[in-house]
Amino acid sequence: MASTQQPASSGSDGQRYATNDERKRKRMESNRESARRSRMRKQQHLEELLSQLTQLQNQNSIWRERIDAVGRNYHGVDAENNVLRAQIAELTEWLDSLNSLTGFWADANGLAVDIPEIPDTLLEPWQLPCPIQHITANADMLQF
């Protein structure tokens, strides 16, 4: 087969190469610009994520402080409740002793004294069936 050879350089070939080079240059320039925009978007996204991370860490710190404060408050209230329960037990025992002495005194003197039982609602005030009513007292009432 006979091969046809093209002339080494004709005017149209030179123009075609120049056009191809121009297209290649434009494509490379477009790719560089696209890559630059992509890097900028990626950097902006990273900065947004870092900002969000800082904000979430600050919120986390605030919530931890609040939780710790509630925990400390709970332990304080729990300790106070334990003291109050111990006082209730001591006062109940003291009232039972006084009721017994009053009963002995009434029996010895031949008097009829009605000594009511201590209601459960006084021993377990958190189970009161009615709203809490304030009791007024003065310091003289509690002296031993």
From TrEMBL:
Q: Write the record's keywords in alphabetical order, separated by commas.
A: DNA-binding, Nucleus, Transcription, Transcription regulation
What domain of life does the native source organism fall in? Eukaryota
A GO BP annotation: positive regulation of DNA-templated transcription
Q: Which PROSITE patterns does the record match to this protein?
A: BZIP, BZIP_BASIC
By its UniProt entry, which InterPro entries does this protein fall under? bZIP, bZIP_plant_GBF1, bZIP_sf
**GO function term, MF aspect, one:** protein heterodimerization activity
- Could you identify this protein by its name? BZIP domain-containing protein
Question: Native species of this protein?
Answer: Anisodus acutangulus
The organism that produces this protein has a lineage beginning with: Eukaryota, Viridiplantae, Streptophyta, Embryophyta, Tracheophyta
